[in-house]
Amino acid sequence: MLAWGRWRWVRRQLPAAVLTVLQTLQSHGYSAYLVGGAPRDLLLGRRPQDWDLTTDARPEQVKAVFAQTIPLGEKFGTVRVVIGDDQLEVTTFRREGDYSDRRHPDWVEFTPSIRDDLARRDFTINALALDPLRQQLVDPYGGVRDLQRRLVKAVGDPRQRFTEDPLRMLRFYRFQSTLGFRGETYTEQGIEAEAITQVSGERIRDELTKILMAAVPEIGLAGLARCGLLTAMMPEFIPVQAADPTLFRHLVATVKAIKPEARLRWAAFLHDLGKATTKKVENGQTHYYGHDKVSAELAAGILERLRFATEFRQRVLTLVRWHMFPADPGMTDAALRRLVVKVGPDQIFDLLELRRADLVGTGGSYYQACDSLTRFARRIQALLEGETVFTRKDLAVNGREVMEILELPPGPEVGAILAEVFHWVTEDPERNRKARIYDFLKEKRQKN
Question: So what's the architecture of 150-233 in CATH?
Answer without folding.
Answer: Orthogonal Bundle (1.10)
